[in-house]
């Protein structure tokens, strides 16, 4: 099932890239999708059946809007800190407790945190992610976990788990 899912996704991706329905393009796309599946099929993530659930796409769209909004807010926050005469920063590394289990979902969370200005995911050890934060506003682990990954983690859990 994993290989057939990868084959279908690869072929659809090929069609979207070439945007052509000519027979030569379709045959080439089928060949490229077959070779991709043959060589990379064992590295493809598990749970391909999850890709066929429409509610996951709904939550993905919602997540994209939330992510863009959080990035805009973080950009203004970092710009304020850079342009302020006293540069009010209090950097440090915080340990964020993770509630998601799959490696792919954890990677997506780490990437989302890293792409948000002012935070960088440093490492994931067991159920903890270590994040460098430009301004540690709280010493309470529950509070800074909520601020750093709370909204992202909830939506990523709905999408990938």
Walk me through the structure.
- With 161 residues, the chain is mainly α.
- The protein folds into 2 domains: 2-49; 53-160, no CATH class.
- Helix content is 61%, strand content 12%.
- The protein contains 5 helices and 3 strands.
- It has helices at 2-18, 23-40, 54-83, 103-115, 141-160, and strands at 92-97, 119-125, 128-133.
- The protein has a 3-stranded antiparallel beta sheet, with helices on one face.
- A hairpin with a 2-residue loop joins β2 (119-125) and β3 (128-133).
- The relative contact order is 0.13.
Whole-number average pLDDT? Answer: 84
Structural class: mainly alpha
Biggest sheet: strands side by side, in what order? Answer: 1-3-2
Strand content: 5-15%
Number of domains: 2
Order of SSEs: HHHEHEEH
Low-confidence segments? none
Q: In angstroms, what separates the terminal alpha carbons?
A: 18 Å
Features:
3 strands, 12% strand, three-stranded antiparallel sheet, mainly alpha, 2 domains, 161 residues, 5 helices
Summarize the structure.
With 161 residues, this protein is mainly α. 61% of the residues lie in helices and 12% in strands.
Secondary-structure topology with pairs:
Layout: H1 2-18, H2 23-40, H3 54-83, E1 92-97, H4 103-115, E2 119-125, E3 128-133, H5 141-160
Antiparallel strand pairs: 1-3, 2-3
Helix pairs in contact: 1-2, 3-5, 4-5
